[in-house]
Amino acid sequence: MHRISDNRMAGAPQKNLHVFANLCGDEAMHNVILATTMWNRVKEHVGARREKELKEEYWKTMLEKDSMVVRFNGTFQSAWSIVDEILRSTNRSPLPLLLQEEMVDFHKRLSETKAGITLYEELKNLLSLHNDAIRKLKEEARVQGNPHVVKELDAQSEMIQEKIRQTLDQIQEMRIPLGRRIRSLLMFRGLGKVCTCN
Q1: Where are the domains of the chain?
Q2: For helices 147-174 and 114-143, angle between their N-to-C axes, nearest 10 degrees
Q3: Residue 4 and residue 56 in contact, taking contact as beta carbons nearer than 8 Å
Q4: Mean pLDDT, consecutive 10-residue segments, the chain of 198 residues?
Q5: Residues near 2 by Cβ (< 8 Å), separated by ≥ 6?
């Protein structure tokens, strides 16, 4: 679901969509329904322009794989028509998500799946942003002679450092052991039975 009242699609919504696409995979895209909401908060022509932009730019790849766009205008009838589309989509050859195939059929850990790898990259980017923010705060605190400002900047710096620690913990949980990476590579090439590394 996407709020049509949002005048741009950037940051978290775009990243979430990227993770979602990697979780579903290409084969299951024809069962995806992208619903726009909050039509009562924009003028029709503004909403139509934003919807066109979503279709032609942000959702283009998903639509090329037969995903569907619907509008939810806040009425019961609109809600039920979307439910009907969901039911119709599940009746037309439902396929497992890419995440399901990777974890069940290929016995991958979450961190080895396409969605997991995307999340890992996002965490690394977040860590880099936090490190840059801390560096800038420390530089600003050094330049400022005001002890109140320095104290405030130190508090912000500590908060960011805590986020970095949490991010590092998440990255640590997602690390793939070297032996498993090698085994996964060999299995991909059809040599999985040769390798006995852990």
Answers
A1: 2-93, 101-188
A2: 160
A3: no
A4: 83 76 82 91 94 92 91 92 82 71 79 78 76 76 72 76 71 56 48 40
A5: 9, 13, 34, 35, 36, 37, 54
Tokens standing for 4?
């049509």
The residues pairing with 70 across neighbouring beta strands, listed in sequence order, are 35
DSSP 37: E
Cβ burial 72-83 (10 Å sphere, 16+ → b, else e): beeeeebeeebe
Separation of alpha carbons 56 and 188, rounded Å: 35
How many angstroms separate the CA atoms of 123 and 105, rounded?
Answer: 27
Angle at CA of residue 37, ends 31 and 43, nearest 5°:
135
Count of C-beta atoms within a 10 Å radius of residue 132:
11
Determine contact, residues 171/120, Cβ cutoff 8 Å.
Answer: yes
